[in-house]
Amino acid sequence: MNVYLLGTAGARYVVAKQLRASAGTVLEEDGEFLLIDPGPGTIVHLAKHKIPVEKIRNILISHKHLDHSADLNVIVDAITEGTLKKRGRLFIPKEAWEEGVLLSYLKEALAETIFLAEKEAYHTAKFSFKTTKKLLHSAETYGFIFNLKDGKSLGFLVDTAFFEELISEFQGVNYLIVNVVRYEPKEGVLHLSVQDVRKLLASLRPELTVITHFGMTMLRANPFKVAKDLSSELNLKVVAAYDGLRLTL
Ligand SMILES: [Zn+2]
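Above: inputs. Below: predicted complex with zinc ion.
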């Protein structure tokens, strides 16, 4: 599987000033594409990285927040040829759908809409994933675990505050992509900080962890240094994503 992390921005100011791109993540398996969380600028960064938007057939939204859904409209317009073709499969929390992250006329152009539920399995021709239980965030939000062809698994731990069950939810993943918005934890902020990630990784011990979705405090701390420190402290492979990072798993 190829994984393209088109953007690594994770909080209001970083998105607003585009200090990092806020584009989504693309998975590619045997020519099938799945786009996760198309934040602002996804359409631009798909073009920049020569990923053919018209070939995307699956879109997965973790939650309704703008930095995870803003470009959904333009992507659906592209894959349905401006609604002329009924195409595309959208996996989305019901809350995001009902709140209208996608305009009504584009909703009708989708071939299939699937509402996400906790701890359910989902399949397309080439992709197989399950949701986690609802995450602790200010919207209906799910994490994802993808099964890879070689029997390994890839976890996406998106926006959430830390809670103990995250450890059991992601137990056994071989690879983990984790949104780390904050360097230090802050009361009332429903996002992971570096100390939360340290605790998680100490239990989960994935073969490879990619930290991404950075807020200002992370950018100031330098994500590459944070990843390096976590790697040496935990004796694990932890890397910091940059815009356009491509992984082959
Ligand atoms: Zn969010």
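Residues 2-243 form a domain with the Metallo-beta-lactamase; Chain A fold (CATH 3.60.15.10).
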